[in-house]
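An instance noted here:
***
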Amino acid sequence: MSQNKNVSFERSVPQQPRPSNVYVGVGGSDSLCINPKRDHKSENYEDLQLEFNPLVFSSLEQYLPPHMLHLSREVKVQYMRNILLRYLPESERIRIQKHKEYRQKIMLNYPPLHKEIYSMDAEKFFTPSFLRAIKENTEESFRSIMAEPCKGIYTFEMLQPRFCEMLVAEVDHFERWVHATKFRIMRPNIMNQYGAVLDDFGLEAMLDRLMNDFIRPLSRVFYSEIGGSSLDSHHGFVVEYGINRDVELGFHVDDSEVSLNICLGGEFSGGELFFRGVRCDEHVNSDIQPGEIFDYYHVPGHAILHPGRHRHGARPTTSGNRINLILWCRSSAFRELKKYRRDFSSWCEECKRKKKEKERLLVMVTQQELMKREMQSAS
């Protein structure tokens, strides 16, 4: 529901605390449960013409009040649609509709270079080790192919060289077509002046499969506290750095719950990513703490997976050119429920630090009070 852009470091007004029992109201009689019913099998909404991604409705359904779970699909759709519309102003709905028309115009006219990458072919896209881990679908299998060089950041070999080459060539082909036809190109976000949104020229379905079948299993294990189990939409794009391209990327957080970043190749120097700690909106500008400093050096075909709220940036690419595939994965349920909470100590390192400090002070005050009572008793 939010725009495709990196989020600048701005403080938001904290929400007022809500009871942590059953429902979260959103105006009128519409409400959601704070905790989902995990064993409920959601409906499939893909055959309906809706303003929102059908996966959003399937994800939200588990958060419906219990009495609604077994009502007709039409009733549930209307209920969830009313909730979603409250947070999507008319101007945003108009923008989304225009963007949809823009995509349709591209796909009616753009001639793909490599049609085989427009549908998921896992055996040809991914490395055998990655496929084996996903097939086994256990934390042990995932960790067997991953490194965790910094808490919550995972790196692993993922894409085969041939797929990387084809995707790079497809993006180059698309940009040449845009230039030749004088078609307007939408850039990935406000911070990147080069690159392209892959969803805009036909790769949306393939990236949906990438998120649902290959990233969500990982996120369910490693990022459950930030919506990793309920990812339901994405923003997929490539970025380009180097000569006559973007040089660096400023310090920011992503508009995602979970971010996947894969180097597709190129001969280059520099451009390493730097990470500086996970933060909620309120603490996004807080100081860097010991143990939060981590730098990552790109390797073609290798992926880095991290929370979208992990503050990071990219240092200057000093020579050559590199191109990266980025997939921002989002959870509408997590975003909705986050509005009614103030304590994010399960994932925000600053919230966690402040909570520990409060507990330490409380223990100290309690100890002092006990000592004072003992002294009074002794006298």
Observations:
- Residues 1-28 have pLDDT under 50 and may be disordered.
